[in-house]
Design a protein that fits this description.
CATH class of the largest domain: Alpha Beta
Pfam family, one: Response_reg
InterPro entries: AAA+_ATPase, AAA_lid_NorR, CheY-like_superfamily, Homeodomain-like_sf, HTH_Fis, P-loop_NTPase, Sig_transdc_resp-reg_receiver, Sigma_54_int
Distance between the termini: 79 Å
Largest sheet: 5 strands, parallel
Number of strands: 12
CATH topology of the largest domain: Rossmann fold
Mean pLDDT: 88
Strand order of the largest sheet: 2-1-3-4-5
Keywords: ATP-binding, Nucleotide-binding, Phosphoprotein, Transcription, Transcription regulation, Two-component regulatory system
CATH architecture of the largest domain: 3-Layer(aba) Sandwich
Low-confidence stretches: none
Structural class: alpha/beta
GO molecular function, one term: sequence-specific DNA binding
Number of helices: 20
Protein name: Two-component response regulator
Shape: elongated
Number of domains: 4
């Protein structure tokens, strides 16, 4: 069935003629001679386009337009107007009309406008659909974590979203910095504006400057036309600069100016451009150390670090792993089957024991891999990638990440490891000291002495 068009015109011959000719073109057409009846029909049936005369007896075309837009913004309105009232037609466009057509006009001229209007309507509907999908991706509910560290992150993000404050997100690769940046943007008053993402690490110095600030035609070899940069494209919205630590020192000066004044010039240009943009940055490195080493400007750091958001690595919030597993199972399974596959205890033990150097992104890939090999029988040790199947869970209980350590107190470390092992044994033995001693391979008297020394005695049973 063709697109539905409603014609509102009190000139009978015009109305009948348009209705007949548009039907021949495949449109589903209805016509009425007054605005009130037109409004009733629009509210009782779904119409794609309303073509209305500007001057009508009783309620005029402008009033009809306003009421239609109040009822449904997605309905396209085209205004018919006599030559002498073009100024009023322009006013109608300001009120939300898609276009106007001056009388007298040919049917072909109206059909062209209808085709353009319907294309615009379909494109707008698709853009809105995609925007809703993107916004759903960045809902707070998709930031998974019940650990205290993640609760603090979510609380900070919710607090800062509605403000235009500059945010610096800190975290290792794969921790979800882009998801946090998206949540900030899509819960702000800029949510209907663009969200422009730039990976500063992926571009060399020459390309990065042009990407950020644009360039004029002839600014350098290959600049065959003027090009807008990411800051211009982000006007009215937010720009997310990932890996800000990779921006060269000389370009940091220009970036500092944008943060301070919201002005810049394109590469090779002289005109000063102004932008209204919120800046969100992310780094996987310690910028204070970068400052000491001479790689990052201190004044730029304090401009960026207005509100810091620190995302902990997955190894520091392992209590969130079961929740993340469930989230990814729903993400990858829902489109194929109704029930989520179960996760065996052996597989879960490995997933909890592993240190996850790739963080949440690595866990997501592992779950997708496991589902691909599960054959609807659930997630087992056999469905995990080979490097995880080879993991010695018992040895991994003693593992620790020392990559960021310069010194360590050996006695404190040994005490912490001993405490973890006893707590692990207590959990396995449900607190029974005899079984705990057997699991740990030590005499029961030795276990009791260690429980007292580590102040764990009260939680164990005889």
């Amino acid at each position: 069935m063709g697109s539905k068009v409603l014609i509102v015109d009190d000139e009978k011959l015009m109305r009948i003629s348009l209705e007949s000719q548009l039907r021949k073109e495949g449109y589903n057409v209805k016509s009425v001679d007054n605005a009130l009846d037109g409004l009733k029909i629009v509210k009782s049936e779904e119409y794609d386009v309303v073509v209305t005369d500007l001057r009508l007896s009783g309620m005029g075309g402008i009033e009809l337009l306003k009421d239609i837009k109040k009822y449904n913004q997605e309905i396209i309105v085209v205004i018919m107007t006599a030559y002498g009232t073009l100024e009023s037609a322009v006013s109608a466009i300001k009120e939300g009309a898609y276009d106007y057509i001056a009388k007298p006009f040919s049917t072909d001229e109206l059909i062209i406008k209808l085709q353009r209007a319907l294309h615009y309507k379909n494109t707008t509907a698709e853009v809105n659909r995609l925007r809703k999908e993107i916004q759903a991706e960045f809902e707070f509910s998709n930031i998974i974590g019940n650990s205290e560290a993640m609760k603090k992150v979510i609380e900070t993000v919710k607090s800062v979203s509605e403000r235009d404050t500059t945010v610096l997100i800190k975290g290792e690769s794969g921790t979800g910095k882009e998801k946090i940046a998206g949540a900030i943007h899509y819960h702000s008053n800029r949510r209907m504006g663009p969200f422009i993402r730039v990976s500063c690490a992926a571009l060399n110095r020459e390309i990065l400057e042009s990407e950020l600030f644009g360039h004029e035609k002839g600014a350098f070899t290959g600049a065959v036309k003027t090009r807008r940069g990411r800051f211009e494209l982000a006007n009215g919205g937010s720009i997310f600069l990932d890996d800000i630590d990779d921006v060269p020192l000389d370009m940091q000066v220009k970036l500092l100016r944008v943060l301070q004044e919201r002005t810049f010039e394109r590469v090779g240009g002289e005109e000063t451009l102004c932008v209204d943009v919120r800046v969100i940055c992310a780094t996987k490195k310690d910028l204070l150390e970068h400052i000491k080493e001479g790689y990052f400007r201190e004044d730029l750091f304090y401009r960026l670090n207005v509100v810091p958001v620190n995302i902990p690595p997955l190894r520091q919030r392992k209590e969130d792993i079961p929740h993340l597993i469930n989230y990814f199972l729903k993400k990858f399974v829902s489109q194929y089957e109704d029930a989520l596959p179960s996760v065996s205890k052996e597989a879960l033990d490995v997933l909890l024991a592993y240190d996850w150097p790739g963080n949440v992104r690595e866990l997501e890939n592992v779950i997708e891999h496991a589902i691909a090999f599960s054959k609807l029988k659930g997630i087992s040790l056999e469905t995990l990638p080979e490097y995880l199947r080879k993991l010695d869970v018992r040895t991994d209980l003693l593992s620790m990440n020392l990559s960021n350590k310069e010194t360590i107190n050996l006695q404190d470390a040994l005490t912490e490891v001993e405490k973890k092992l006893i707590q692990w044994a207590r959990q396995k033995a449900n607190g029974n000291q005899v079984k705990m001693a057997e699991i740990l391979g030590i005499p029961r008297t030795t276990l009791r002495n260690r429980l007292m020394k580590l102040q764990l005695f009260e939680n164990a049973t005889s």
